[in-house]
Description:
Layout: E1 2-3, E2 13-14, E3 32-38, E4 48-53, E5 59-64, H1 71-85, E6 87-88, E7 91-94, H2 101-114, E8 126-128, H3 153-180, H4 197-202, E9 214-215, H5 218-228, H6 239-251, H7 262-269
Parallel strand pairs: 3-7, 7-8
Antiparallel strand pairs: 1-2, 3-4, 4-5, 6-9
Amino acid sequence: MQLLPYCPLLRLESMVFGLVNFQGILLEPHHQWSGDGHDKLSKIGFPIWAIHDQWSGKWLGMWVVLNNHLKTTIVYLYLSLVYEIGGMLLQTTTDYGSEMTEVYSFANALREIFSPNLPTDKLLAYCFLKIQWGDNVKIFWEVGEEIYNDMDPCQYDLVQWLWPQLIQQELDKLKHHLNTHTIWYDHDKILPSGVSLNIAMSLHEDYNAKNCLQPVDHDIVKNLMEGIGREDLIHFVGSEYSVAAQSIFNNLGFTVLTFENVWQVFAAILPLL
């Protein structure tokens, strides 16, 4: 079990299998991604979904979403990552959630289109794997319990604008930290150590590994993303509301949103909406 560094938002844990997966196949960069949901923040309405490269441990994406069990949302995140990176992996592993069945279909379809030469009987495009996540610490949410009424539509909408962007902001910082900090050198470890995860991925040839990323047609992937719902699937409020709230935030002189000032910002913006 690999424990990731503590952050004020959450601690994540993921199962690491070394260079060989449970099918006995040698793992290399972008050979296998592991993804799963983190439900501790679901209690306050902000579930998380994340995915990382199994060979290097590099975190490829962390997102706060409306529902991390909604099939179309997870498919959109999967396709957006394929689009961003410019290719698809050989194999994806997740838990057994029913929301993953549609991703399974898309993963197989994409590979049949872009990499039909790969042997499907020996190398599955998608394998289900149980990912364990650590406990989450709900920091600062309770501070606003006395001033926030979730039954008030105006207050609810403002929280839906403030908190997801704050959580996403912290997730982006966490991903950057995990991918850039240098991990301890382990003489007995086969996988890269003594370097950051980003460097390990960039210099994978130094570890006698090859990049398994399969090229894709960006236009096809983009059309698939638009066909299932576009970015509305991962937005908590509409674009017009977001623009209006951001304008008020800027005009009030706030320069940054933090866990320390989020309820102060809430109280300042609410009367102006």
